[in-house]
Known about the structure:
alpha/beta; two-stranded antiparallel ribbon; 9 strands; binds benzoic acid
Amino acid sequence: MDTNLNLAEGSRNLRIGDTAPDFEARSTIGPVKLSNFRERWLILFSHPADFTPVCTTEFVELARQAGEFEKRDCALMALSVDSLFSHFAWLRMIRDRFEIEVRFPIVEDPTLVIGRAFGMVAPQDNDSATVRTTFFIDPSGVIRAMTCYPASMGRSIPEMLRMLDALQAIDARDALAPANWQPGEPLLKPPTQDLDEVFGAGDETAWFLRETGKGKGK
Ligand code: BEZ
């Protein structure tokens, strides 16, 4: 299948706020088109290779937590350079060995055209492996956060869920999430741009460090 539908040639440095480049590709659940996932949150993430130890632990844990992403109306989509049939064989091994079925799509990207368009591969890198890049894409198709881990380090699935919760709470309440924020904890109000509010605030920090209502509970 031609994966190169709307992808500009070469590698891009995508940033927060960019619209995720659209693509269509074969996956373990059939052909997928990124833009068809609009209206929901989407976590698109790359892994270096099938049948590798750290990737296997990530996929087992993501499959175990799939219901948590579903509860948050968030689809998962994985991607690597491996072929569709490698993905199938790996998922079968995971099912047999770990008794869990990975049901979210894993895209094949044998030419790295998608990986390069998303900056998941260094432009000068001839190694086919993508690093562990994760894109949090909102229901309008905009990249809202991204993380990049080395091949040698597995992602934290609770942290992926926390980031998703924070992004959703921020949007729902037009607020900010402080350091170490967890669902159910207070959010922060955006800083005021009104001098009267600055002078009228009760104490010296209240004008710029103000809590607002609590985010979504656990
Ligand atoms: C891993 O997932 O275990 C892995 C992938 C690529 C290189 C090294 C380790």
